[in-house]
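Example for tutorial group B:
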């Protein structure tokens, strides 16, 4: 009888442990992007380099929180910083630190680094140039070199395609690829997608794009023999890259904080970020100020 009670006790304990582990496991599987009773609208504006990432993350976040609506718009880093500072947007996306934007009261803003993006030199696909030195690159973008034959290409006039001066991608490219020299005038667009289209359709065109926008319609050019691979960027070998920031006016709270936390979650950082061509903050072996 005593032995039977002992076996019964062991069986009951086993069931208790099983149900406890199963229940806990189910609870742990719940994504941290699911917020009980979450509702409301977020307006996110700014960097077009960040736009594909934020749009994808917003879609997944809304699927898990159906009473939340997130509107994601481009316009450039300068627009994102200005609108969030003015209270016209909840979150401002930027390729540059707010400290690099004139006319912004930085003390009012809180920035969060959500990932890194590489920026590559790209040309029209008919241009067969595969590598340029930094000096050649600077001479091209300052107008000293005006024909591709001067750097080993065909006899074709060079057409510069830039982002506007408020663009974080342009500021980062000028700073890290051109060592801060002033660019010559060329064609401009405030949309990375439009820049890609112009370059792919214009003979002799050259410009720069964030890696998520690069596809077979443009020709990517290495700088001093280095391409913008994840390994070259994270190791500090390829210099033209930028932090991707999300800015709020004051400390993020409520739905703003929930979405920024989701951008930093394992789900986004290990899946969405690399799948779209960005680099997780945790992968970087080198750092920059701000």
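The residue assignment follows.
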């Amino acid at each position: 009888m005593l032995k039977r009670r002992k076996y019964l006790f062991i069986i009951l304990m086993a069931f208790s442990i099983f149900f406890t582990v199963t229940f806990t496991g189910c609870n742990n599987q719940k994504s941290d992007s699911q917020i009980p009773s979450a509702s409301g609208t977020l307006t996110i504006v700014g960097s077009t380099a960040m736009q594909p990432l934020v749009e994808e993350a917003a879609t997944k976040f809304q699927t898990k929180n159906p009473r939340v609506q997130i509107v994601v718009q481009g316009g450039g880093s300068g627009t994102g910083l200005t609108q969030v500072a003015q209270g016209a947007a909840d979150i401002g996306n930027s390729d540059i630190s707010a400290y690099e934007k004139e006319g912004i009261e930085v003390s009012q803003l809180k920035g969060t680094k959500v990932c890194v993006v590489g920026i590559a030199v790209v040309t029209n696909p008919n241009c067969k140039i595969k590598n340029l030195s930094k000096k050649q690159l600077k001479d091209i973008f300052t107008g000293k070199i005006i024909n591709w034959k001067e750097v080993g290409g065909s006899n074709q006039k060079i057409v510069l395609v830039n982002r506007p001066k408020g663009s974080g991608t342009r500021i980062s490219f000028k700073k890290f690829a051109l060592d801060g020299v002033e660019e010559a005038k060329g064609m401009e667009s405030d949309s990375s997608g439009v820049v890609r289209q112009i370059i792919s359709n214009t003979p002799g065109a050259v410009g720069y794009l964030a890696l998520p926008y690069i596809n077979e319609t443009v020709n990517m050019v290495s700088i001093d023999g280095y391409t913008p691979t994840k390994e070259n960027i994270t190791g500090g070998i390829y210099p033209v890259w930028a932090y991707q920031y999300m800015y709020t006016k004051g400390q993020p709270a409520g739905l703003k904080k929930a979405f920024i936390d989701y951008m930093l979650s394992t789900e986004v950082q290990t899946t969405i970020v690399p799948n779209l061509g960005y680099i997780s903050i945790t992968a970087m072996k080198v750092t920059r100020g701000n």
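The beta strands are 40-46, 68-75, 91-94, 109-123, 131-132, 159-162, 187-188, 205-210, 219-223, 241-249. Compare this with the pattern of hydrophobic and polar residues in the output above.
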